[in-house]
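Case study 2.
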Amino acid sequence: MTIEKMQIQHVPQVAALEKQCFSDPWSEKSIASELVNDLAFWLVALEGETVAGYVGSQTVLGESDMMNIAVHPDFRRQGIAEALVDALMTELHEQGSRCLTLEVRASNESAKQLYRKLGFIPIGKRPNYYFNPREDALILRKEWEI
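Prediction:
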């Protein structure tokens, strides 16, 4: 398994994984647009040529927001999500970001457990943030020294 910066050839697989994992997925066009967005930074976890997972972020004024993360069902429970978030935080830190914020479904216990393990702390809630099904999002944040 390798982790590298997302490239145009990864976009179709990332979009397919979005559709498989989320009820309100980003389109292939939206994902591709992140490649030319100066604020964006996305990583993919590759098993050969297969995108096993991905994570995307945007950074404004030294503060980063994790936009999306997913791992293909065939590759779950292997530490890929943790490796992706670790790699993302390392890269963002090197780029001068001071923190990473994310939203997570209030009911997503496995994701909340991972984020706690990685040092994220709850800082708020967004009522009715998610659709299909409608659900609150917890806002989590991790800050680091630069």
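DSSP finds four helices and seven strands in the chain.
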